[in-house]
Structure formats: C-alpha cells, structure tokens
Design a protein that fits this description.
single chain; alpha/beta; 6-stranded mixed beta sheet; 28 strands; disordered N terminus; Plant_Biomass_Hydrol_Est; Peptidase_S9_cat
C-alpha cells in the first residue's frame, strides 16, 4: 500500500547509518539457520583472554567485590538502594570473563574500563556520595530482578533540561534495541554510555532496557522492560501519561507486542521493521517451512500481534518501514489486521530505503510523536476494546477480564460509557469480568445506582463511592450474567491472571530450581533429569542473562514455597517435594507407570513436564522437569522464540533431547479453565 507523497520523501544525500545498538540487524543466516541438526552456538564463544589481562581483570573484580560487600553491610537504606548501580559493572565483567564472552580483543579493554567505573562508583558510595544520580546525558543504572535476584542494567538519556530538585514530570520514551548476538552486558553498558540512540526528543527521558539479551523482549525480557521502567520511575520524575514505546528491527517487534499487550500504558507506539507474528514472517524472511503441532499454533497467540490489533484503539500508533526492507512485512501484516477492525494505520515509509530509518522519515515521525505527547494518554476513555487470547494480558484501562470460557481462543470485551449513569458491555469468550475506576476517575453520578447492560441484559450495579471510585464485578451463571464475582467451591482451582500457564509463564516471576536429593527409580529418567536440569541452568544464563537459583529439595522451606514458583526436577522417588504433592497433581506417577487420564506410559523411559498451581501454595506454580520450553534452534531467529509446550507433556526419553524438544513429545495438552485434564 502506497501512502500519501508527504510520507515518501525522496532525498539525494547518503543515508545515515543507524547506531548498531539501536537498530542492529535482525538477519539470521538464511537457509543454514533452518537446520535443527546443525545449530550454531548463540552466543558464540568469545576470544581467549591472555593470562596477564585475565589476572588484571580478576584483581579488579576482587577489589570491586570487596567494596560491594562492604557497602552491603550498611544500614543506610539510600546507600543500599544504589548498590545495583555498582553491581552491574562487576557482574558484566565477571560473566564475560567466566563464560568466555569477550567477543573481540578490544572488549577486554572495555571490561577493564568498566571495572574502573564500577570501582569509582563504589568508592563514591562508600563516602555516601552518588553523583551519577544527579547526572544528565548518558547514565547507566541497575536494579535487582524479582525473577532470579540478579542485577540487571539499563541505559538512560537524561535531558539537560531535567531539574533534579523540581516537581515537573517528564515524558519518557522506551527504546527497544535491535538483535545483537554479541550484546553481552559488557557491550550493552559500554554502548549505553556512548550512544544516545536513534531518538532524543526535547525534555524527554529515553530508557534503553537491556531486555535480558536477544529474545525480542519476550518472557524474562518482557519483565525486564517493566522492571527497568519501574526503577526509572523510582529514580526520576516520569509522567505516567506521557510514556511511549519505540524500537527498530528486533526492537520494532518488541514495540508491536508491548503496544498491543499493554496498550493502555502508552501515549503512543512507534514500531519500525522487525516482525509482528511468527508464521508469515518465518516464511517471508527465513524461507522456513513450518510444521507446527496444534498446540504450538495456539501458543503463537501469546506474542503474535495481529489478533490483538483492536487493542491499538487505546494506543495511537505511528509505524515505520523502509520501502525496500523485507521487514516491512511486519507493518504490512499489522496494517491489514487493523483494517479488519476498522482502523487505518499511519505507516511512514522511507523511500528506496532498506533496513534503516530514513532521515526525512525521522522528522515526520518526531513531529507526530511530539504532537501525541502533548495530548498524552487518556486516563478514563469512554470506549474500551480489550482483545486477548490469555489471561496473562487481561486488562485494558477500567476493564479486566477475570475468566475465560477457553484460553487460546480469542476473548473480547467492548465497553463504553454512553452517559446517563449507564455502561454498555459486550463480551466474547468471557465468563467473568470487573469494571474498576480509581478515586476521582468515575464519570458517573454517585447519588444513583449504575445500570450496566451486559450482552443485552440490564443489571443494577452499585453507585460510585464518595471519592468517585467505582468497582463492580460480573460473572456468567446458568441464568446468564449476574452482578458479583464468580464463586467457587472451597479449594477449587481456577485459571486467573498470572496463574494461567503455559509452562514458560513460571519463568516470568520468582522461581527456584529444586534439585532432587535422591535417585530416580529409572536410570534412564535419572540421566535425563540431570541432563535437562543442567541444560536449563546453563541456558537460563546464556539466553536470559541470569543466574538460576538452585536449592535441594531438603532445603525448601515455607519461605520459598510462599515466595517463588518451584521447578521440581526428578520423580516422586528422587525429589521429596514432588513426593509430597504427587497425589494432588492431575497425573499419577509411580515406579511402573505414568497415568494421564485414560492413557498410560511406562515410567522407565517416559517423564512428564507440566505446570500446575503448587498444592503447597496455590498462588504460585509448581513445574515438573522443565526450564523455558524453546531451545537452541529458536535462538537463531527471534520470531521462533515462542512457547514450544503447553501446560503438560509426556516425553519419551528413548529419543535424545535435541535443539527443539527435550525428547519425543508423545502427548501434550492444556488444562481446562479449572486446571483439570481436558
């Protein structure tokens, strides 16, 4: 589709090459990266560090660690809160040295410089000083992630106009970086201290999330964005109504998914290139012949954006593509999806431009983003459209989808305020929902009840409270929609937000790998468990740049059960926690047989993987024998990085684990909305 000529500005000057970290190429190696049996290592092994330089780095690490240990002894809350700003330097260099992730000789020198910078911050903080917290320009900071308690870095561009003692709030743009297979913490921090990136709007804080490496800001990468934004809000005055998401290449893919999944949080979205879904992109870009299982196709809906397109009703969107960029496909797909729901997408196209942002297009984009920033996010829209395939993404402004008829089938709520103390709601594949407006926000008459028309039935709802807050829940019963939250029998499990699966969801919050203290009944199972547990630990660090917490079953206390998802490795004979809960899981597992419904599998060469509410604490998950479910083959192209297994699966261990699956998947499915076998 060609847009009006004003968006297709011809120029004769050479194109400006984008900074590597802000628009890194997404490109994989073409057909060679379509061979599951010949997968190259990502990240690749770096160079060997000469002994002299290794000794210098180790000396610098030891000194900095000593300073960090000293800082951790303080009782000063302010100093303790700033320790992550020091730790990011230590962890970056330690990981690069320990895991051979200096990818070029020059990066070794960068590592030395980062240690000097970390030591300088540590020395300042030991004196009670933290000058970087009052610094404008390029600043790198850190936070401790709830997922695995590791320190994670993020970059900031603080405008010169920022007043540290003032009260005015500032616009904030999130910029998602492009694919970088060598984007170690060392390289990310170094680049964040040297490059302002593609856009630095006036009077705007620009946040550059690390996203935990090169996963298109999915899973732990998604959580990293939200945690980095929250950390930025704690340290700087951010206007919640003027936060935008932007990105290019892999970052453009991230922008699409953050725009559709969290549309009510941003005043605008500005995606460029990248991908917006899995199958068409891999066909067009990677020339890959896909043969997904039925559940893999359903699981694409976790991150595929076209089905969520209507959510952009809440988020003004300015898309960009180069005219001759193969990744223009992403915006074309979304343009078509938006047209189907009645929205005409603004699509800025750089003329005769490949995988770069055209300079004149940048001017047009910035004019539009600045205009949208002046308007800001709408606090209480009179019309809401919420579309989702999972309770993971179940909220839009004042509408929350509490329960679905069936996950992974599109659910939808359309709500509007027509005036006159009335609310109109239409639903699809919804069985419970809540309408909630914060104090001061309800545009309703507090002296009269509210009439809510749900799918044609008129129901009387409570009136707003004196602080102009309003909240009411509805659930579907045999007689139709009724006022009030759904009621369940005592102990009845039900899928709900952040407790809905699939297996990969367990790794978007605090989790602990629980190793077995005993041996599995079957030597085959024992060997597989040990291999898969090691694989999960190694690949969590390589791909999600964290250190998985590992505890033996005998070490788990009520504290861990209350605070974390537990990933239990082994079988009921080897893992004491699993032995304790096995009769409360929806499968049976003894030394002879694994029973799933009316199917049986020999326990000497099969193993289950699954996710389920922990019987010891149903507000957290328990996972059996699995880390995140995509494997080495998916690392080669970010569009492949999607869940590969649903809520449960049975693995035949006679087929060795490979680059796509942990063995032969002989059966797999989702649990129903009450965590029962289908």
């Amino acid at each position: 589709m060609k847009l009006p000529q004003k968006y297709l500005v011809k120029i004769t000057i050479p194109l400006i090459l984008a900074a590597c970290w802000s628009s890194s190429l997404l490109y994989a190696d073409g057909p060679k990266d379509n061979l599951p049996d010949q997968v190259r290592r990502i990240p690749a092994l770096g160079v060997e560090v000469p002994e002299k330089q290794r000794a210098q780095l180790e000396e610098g690490l030891a000194k900095l660690k000593s300073s960090i240990d000293q800082l951790k002894k303080t009782k000063d809350a302010r100093i303790r809160s700033l320790i992550p700003d020091v730790e990011i330097y230590h962890r970056a260099v330690r990981c690069a040295l320990e895991y051979q992730e200096f990818f070029h000789e020059r990066e070794i020198g960068v590592g030395s410089k980062l240690l000097e910078q970390g030591q300088e911050r540590a020395d300042q903080l030991l004196k009670g000083e933290a000058p970087w917290t009052k610094q404008t320009g390029l600043v790198v900071r850190g936070y401790i992630s709830k997922i695995d308690q590791t320190v994670q870095p993020y970059g900031l561009v603080i405008p010169e106009s920022y007043t540290f003692l003032g009260k005015s709030q500032y616009r904030c743009d999130l910029w998602f970086h492009g694919r970088g297979e060598r984007l170690s913490e060392v390289n990310f921090i170094n680049q964040a201290q040297r490059s302002r990136g593609q856009y630095t709007p006036t009077d705007t804080i620009v946040l550059h999330p690390y996203g935990r490496y090169s996963n298109a800001f999915k899973f732990a990468g998604e959580v990293d964005v939200l945690e980095a934004l929250e950390s930025t809000k704690q340290n700087y005055r951010i206007d919640d109504d003027r936060v935008a998401v932007r990105g290019f290449s892999m970052g453009g893919a991230a922008c699409w998914q953050f725009a559709v999944h969290y549309a009510d949080r941003w005043f605008a979205a500005n995606p460029g290139a990248g991908f917006s879904e899995t199958p068409l992109f891999l066909d067009v870009f990677q020339n890959e012949e896909l043969k997904p299982t039925w559940y893999e196709e359903k699981l694409w809906q976790l991150y595929d954006c076209p089905g969520y397109a209507l959510n952009l009703f809440q988020c003004p969107t300015v898309a960009y593509s180069g005219e001759i960029d193969k990744q223009k496909q992403a915006a074309d797909v979304m343009e078509e999806a938006l047209a189907k729901v009645g929205i005409d997408m603004v699509h800025i196209i750089g003329p005769e431009t490949a995988h770069r942002i055209h300079p004149d297009s940048k001017v047009i984009i910035e004019e539009k983003m600045d205009s949208l920033a002046r308007v800001g996010r709408q606090r209480v829209p009179s019309t809401i459209h919420l579309v989702t395939y999972t309770l993971k993404y179940n909220q839009m402004d004042w509408v929350t989808l509490d329960a679905m008829g069936e996950e992974w089938t599109q659910g939808r709520i359309d709500a509007r305020l027509p005036g006159g103390n009335r609310v109109e709601v239409k639903t699809q594949n919804a069985t419970a929902f809540t309408l909630k407006m914060a104090p001061g926000e309800a545009p309703l008459d507090m002296t009269h009840p509210v009439t809510v028309k749900v799918d044609g039935a008129e129901l009387k709802a409570p009136r707003p409270l004196s602080d102009r807050s309003w909240q009411v829940s509805f659930h579907k019963a045999d007689a139709g929609w009724q006022v009030g939250p759904a009621e369940y029998a005592k102990g009845q499990l039900v899928k709900k937000h952040n407790l809905q699966g699939p297996i990969d969801d367990a790794f978007m919050d605090s989790f602990i790998f629980v190793s077995p203290s005993g041996k599995s009944a079957s030597p085959t199972v024992e060997k597989w468990v040990q291999s898969e547990m090691k694989h999960a630990i190694v690949h969590w660090r390589q791909q999600f740049r964290g250190d998985a917490r590992v505890m033996q079953d005998s070490q788990i206390t009520d504290k861990e059960i209350a605070a974390s998802n537990l990933v239990l490795w082994g079988d009921p004979q080897s893992n004491q926690i699993l032995k304790k809960i096995i009769d409360k899981l929806p499968i049976q597992w003894n030394q002879e047989m694994i029973v799933v419904g009316n199917k049986q599998y020999a326990a000497d060469h099969h193993a289950p993987v699954l996710i389920f509410p922990n019987p010891l604490n149903p507000e957290k998950y328990v996972v059996l024998n699995s880390g995140f479910t995509y494997r080495e083959y998916a690392y080669l192209n970010n569009a492949r990085q999607v869940p590969m297994l649903p809520d449960w699966a049975i693995i035949d261990l006679r087929t060795p684990a490979g680059s796509q699956y942990p063995g032969k998947v002989v059966d797999a499915n989702f649990f129903d909305e009450f965590w029962r076998l289908k």
